[in-house]
Amino acid sequence: xxxxxxxxxxxxxxxxxxxxxxxxxxxxxxxxxxQMQPNGISVQEVLVKALSTVLRIDIEITGAxxxxxxxxxxxxxxxxxxxxxxxxxxxxxxxxxxxxxDIAIYTIREVKTDAHARFDAISRRYEYHIVNSKSxxxxxxxxxxxxxxxxxxxxxxxxxxxxxxxFTSFSKLHTDVxxxxxxxxxxxxxxxxxxxxxxxxxxxxxxxxxxxxxxTLLEVGRGKLSTDEFRKIxxxxxxxxxxxxxxxxGLFLIDIQYPKxxxxx
Length: 265
Hints:
Blueprint: H1 4-8, E1 18-26, H2 43-55, E2 62-63, E3 72-82, H3 88-98, E4 103-111, E5 123-131, E6 143-144, H4 151-158, E7 184-192, E8 195-202, H5 209-221, H6 227-236, E9 251-257
Parallel strand pairs: 3-9, 5-6
Antiparallel strand pairs: 1-3, 1-4, 2-3, 5-8, 5-9, 7-8
């Protein structure tokens, strides 16, 4: 997978570190989230093993963020370093042949050596999928919520998210982040066939933030909370005031954007 010179003479000459972004998708049902951990298999662990096997050297991978156990990604980005040329198309094919069917590589792109998959991201977009009735074809890929929901009221409440930057009320407790501030750029419910889909985009997200927002908006849709009460929950900066987090199975990371300047060619 490397160029012929480094393939045959891996220690010869001066090695120059190169950094690559790897774009992938995964069904998170079988994994304990993205991040490597001691108590369960993770997407990161599976990808590290595959890359290290193909490139014949221990590889470290840094993801654009962490998805929780059971959360899916239509597009995740991670970076890794390698001290040789890489034929990215061939590496993509090789990795896809080795990885399980619930993880797929889209493409691999060279970036500047100081580019960072997490810290250089300028926006992230998630979707949350809800079905009203039992569906064997969406089992594990959408949450079931049997009650009737007022989508207009939920969108009215969702619009208030743009008024705030501190989302402590929707953050998992006792995290190690320095700030709970985020800039939300888009938040809207749409109906597609028999699904309700909530799409939200921000510069960054807190742990459990999307699932907590959705759980609280569902209370609005059920008529249990008003838009003004939803606004007061945000103002309280207290996780205990917000609704319960919805199941992980309905959540998808669908896009991550980066500035064009960080890419090579």
